[in-house]
Amino acid sequence: VQLQASGGGLVQPGGSLRLSCAASGFTLDYYVIGWFRQAPGKERRFVAAIERSDRTWYSDSVKGRFTISRDNAESTVSLQMNNLEPEDTAVYYCAASFSGSLYYTGSYDYWGQGTLVTVSS
Questions:
Q1: What is the pLDDT of residues 57-93, one digit of tens each?
Q2: What 3-state class would DSSP assign to 29?
Q3: How far apart are CA 65 and CA 85, in angstroms?
Q4: Nearest alpha carbon to residue 91 among 41, 40, 57
Q5: What are the backbone dihedrals phi and psi of residue 107, each rounded to the nearest 5 degrees, phi first?
Q6: Which of 4, 18, 1 lies closest to 113, judged by CA?
Q7: What's the rounded Cα separation, in Å, for the pair 66 and 69?
């Protein structure tokens, strides 16, 4: 079982990035897939999640700027991030949850290794 996050990098404020989370070893469409982020010295926090039904959820800080989507046939989940701000700088993690609150890290069974997003001019 593996989740592989990719797509991070350095971007200027106002720019865009698209993160991708590739799943292997399990059936992606059975799980809720979430994105979390962790800034230096801070705890890991919820960013967005997509349910089996494709219903989506976002933190208030990214609502209207980020979009999560899934492609079960390709076993991938993407996070499109627009109008990025310096406060979005963090390591971004994707994770898979079979049950439990999608806002809570403890509900997630599998985690990717993280990809670094840096927003700076």
A1: 999 999 999 999 999 888 999 999 999 999 999 999 9
A2: helix
A3: 10
A4: 40
A5: -80, -10
A6: 4
A7: 10
